[in-house]
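Pasting as-is:
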Amino acid sequence: MFALLYFCLREQIEADSRKVENQFSFMAMAETCEKCGREVRGDFEVYSRDSAQGYEIVVDSTPDRNFNICDSCNIQVCFSCCRFPESGYCDDCIEKYQLEGYLRDVGLIRNGP
């Protein structure tokens, strides 16, 4: 039953993906950091691909991207305003939800301040 559901879902996703391009580019929501007001640059790229585990949606970034959209509160913040930009969270959310220990445990923060 699960295999049939997976197969049907995969077929629908593949059909839908043929209706639109496989790669999209999303520009920064605002042109400035919501903390310091400095200009941000770069963007996100979203594309689909087949993998050994099935169909994947991949979110990547351009090499010049210097900002995050916080995974929790969705503010746009430049890397300079984040203690741990590699985590995907702004400093306020890391502190508010006490995420630093968890993010270190799962490897999203290595060494830092």
